[in-house]
UniProtKB/TrEMBL annotation, chains A, B:
It holds the Pfam family ROK. InterPro entries: ATPase_NBD (IPR043129), ROK (IPR000600). Belongs to the ROK (NagC/XylR) family. It comes from the Bacteria. SUPFAM superfamilies: Actin-like ATPase domain. The lineage of its organism: Bacteria, Bacillati, Bacillota, Bacilli, Bacillales. This is ROK family protein. Gene3D superfamilies: 3.30.420.40.
Amino acid sequence: MGLRIGIDLGGTNVRVALVNEKGSIVEFLQASTESEKGYQQVIEKMSLMIEKVSEGAEIDGIGIGAPGPLDIKKGVILSPPNLPGWDNIPLVEILSGKFGTPVFLNNDANVAALAEANVGSGVGYESVFYITVSTGIGGGFVINNKLFNGAHGYAGEVANMIIDPNGYQHSVLNKGSFEGLASGTSIGRRAEQDFGITGGAKQVFTLAAEGNEQARKIIDETVTYLAMGIANIAHTVNPELFVMGGGVMESIEFILLPLQEKVKKFLFPELASSIKIVPASLTGKAGVIGAAMLV
Amino acid sequence: MGLRIGIDLGGTNVRVALVNEKGSIVEFLQASTESEKGYQQVIEKMSLMIEKVSEGAEIDGIGIGAPGPLDIKKGVILSPPNLPGWDNIPLVEILSGKFGTPVFLNNDANVAALAEANVGSGVGYESVFYITVSTGIGGGFVINNKLFNGAHGYAGEVANMIIDPNGYQHSVLNKGSFEGLASGTSIGRRAEQDFGITGGAKQVFTLAAEGNEQARKIIDETVTYLAMGIANIAHTVNPELFVMGGGVMESIEFILLPLQEKVKKFLFPELASSIKIVPASLTGKAGVIGAAMLV
């Protein structure tokens, strides 16, 4: 009773889990996505994994977290940069036909937000805004334990928020967008451009730990942009809690702690004294758990 | 049955209405605020107006919309620039003591948002983001006909959202804040600074109507900033409808119509094709109606 399948469909890995009604993982499987072999092959692999984790168990439904853009209402994967070859694939229809059970689709950041809010760092909070900062930036907004999708599924798409109209022109996002200025990719780009530091964000953090001033300057700028983005969200919906996930946020010393301080500079005094920004806690498993919660 | 008092406490006027459960005004009174005579005098005047509009009727409670900053939960008016001399005034406690009925306080933009969403331009929409652009900028977010205040009452405080970190330094808001760049005051300031046009926003609109290129340039910049602010809100919560109020928005030809077009430039394609931005419809009465809806 109350068992669901949660699927985390990523560009690199596909993860499938059997999750109980409390959001705990009962069975878990992971495989390489290999989307270059065609989407049919990926769906075939996912289907086998579903059968394997659910083995004989009665399930209430299947939830899938996938990279955007998606059509959430129709359950269609449109044409995600991270899933080459997927082009208007009606994944919900395909899987519900195959398994005769309700199937739900939402984007990866929304699904992680749902998991963090319900069984991760956000437990007990009324409103949680989740932001993941890695290669790109994603977000999701959870109110009273439920995902707030917005009218057309674009709530939480803060990657495209404008932070500096004179800033970097991202290839598919706004000039000076949050993702263009504050993502891991942006850290690597600015480090190379300003100081000839190659090796991406990882190298920047390594150098910063060694005391390199140029690397620290890049990180400091990043923290400022992150603080502005969070302040903008706080002045729009004032969530009780911000939960920060993704590789960049794993740097507690260089990113999270300075961010918690710097954001106060951009907030009304009462907001500054009440804002809460904490790290995500379900790293790696948030996807399947949150996906199962879509059911 | 179902009658409430709605109070719109502004810097210039105080309006008091008896409002029925459908949000229709039954009785209405207006007077000058004259806050320079002291807050006690204003509260005395409000009390007399309450007695007059409710005359013998049984009321369910009193709602008040007032300029911020406020402490909504405690019902205290902190120290609004628009109400000089009001400093930590526990208005809710004072009026509930006087009238023996529940009293609710919220900020003027939130209250107007509630009215527009429920009986104004937002009727029938699930999520409505209201923005008022006049001397300053205010906002309010209504989900399923209820005000979304956020954890500490700062939802909708988009005036302080950062639009351009290198932009104008407002006296009490962020550098490059939405209000600092897109309000009526900002129109007047930029017109004087860039082109020596005095006479404020009103004169800028008059000149623009006469074909003045400088005035049109200022207005065009304003529309760009408004479009960026709306795009940022859309990418954060994707409301089904934006309702625009305030004096600046009354210029349909020079502000609203170009804004509806320009905002699309800053949105994901599907958002661009689905965004709805409409003018407010309860001008002047939104305050008392929305205040009554707090009850």
